[in-house]
Amino acid sequence: MDRKDSDPRRRPHGCTGFSLAGRHYVDVKSTQLDAPLRLHYLDEGEGPVVVWLHGSGPGASGHSNFKGNYPVFVEAGFRNIVLDLPGFGRSDKPADAQYHLDFFVETLNGLLEALDISRCTLLGNSLGGAIALGQTLAHPQRTERLILMAPGGVEARETYFQMEGIQRMVEVFGRGPMGIEEMREVMTLQLFDSSQLDDELLAERAAVAPTQPANLFSTMMVPDMTERLGELDCPMLGFWGINDRFNPVGGTHKFLEHAPQARFLLLNRCGHWVQVEHTDLFNRTCLDFLRHD
After folding, report:
1. Active-site residues: which are they?
2. How far is residue 41's CA from residue 5's CA, in Å, rounded to a whole number?
3. Which of 120, 123, 171, 274 is the most exposed place for a label (fewest CB within 10 A)?
4. Which stretches of the chain score pLDDT less than 50?
5. Cβ atoms within 10 Å, residue 293
6. What is the Cα–Cα distance from 31 to 269, expressed in whole angstroms?
7. What is the rounded CA–CA span in Å between residue 54 and residue 33?
8. pTM of the predicted model as reported, rounded to 2 decimal places
9. What is the pLDDT of residues 42-66, one digit of tens each?
């Protein structure tokens, strides 16, 4: 069931620190949970569907990841579903869930079924990229195209936890509640040029972080899907910053070696958030890909 955000009882599950137009909720079933899982998403624009999947980290949400991008896609004639993954944003955050890749894929596929979306482009950053991969491998008939930004899912878990950004994130989150300054300490490693961080973004994420359960990050498991990349036969556009301190940039070569329709842009002076650090280039390149591939 799809409903507008009019139920104040659901606000503790998300963020009370910022306001959005076009908010919706939908309940989906999970084989892990007894009760339905309520997901928050934005639904903006009309036309071919692009589903936006944000990355992990304290305070993350669809809007905070992509607010500089999806409005341009709306103007270009696309319908944009900007999802808050379970455990993030205004979506439910069950403390008894195991936040494995299969849980996220089941949730995403349930959303697409509930919204009667049979085909779409999946656009994912980091964890969201891994979920896009997992969804496409499990349900290839639903994915028309893939757009990936420094996607997870192509390294062993231990490799990611050797990255400076991941280590900092775990250390700061483990200290306790995160305010704006603690969020700044983590987020400065997301970008090559940390001056691009603004207080509004930090405040958005700091408002969400205290609502996230500890098991969200302790149970998060994403397998290495490198050997299955050859099964992906849809057009794929990827981006990776060579200054990424969260996901090893060598993952680019794994896609190019294994996925037959993959093409990637490597960007200098760019960290983990290409859509924020090179907004105009990202938006322009994605729209060209969606119109012509």
Report:
1. 272
2. 10
3. 171
4. 1, 3-18
5. 13
6. 43
7. 23
8. 0.93
9. 999 999 999 999 999 999 999 999 9
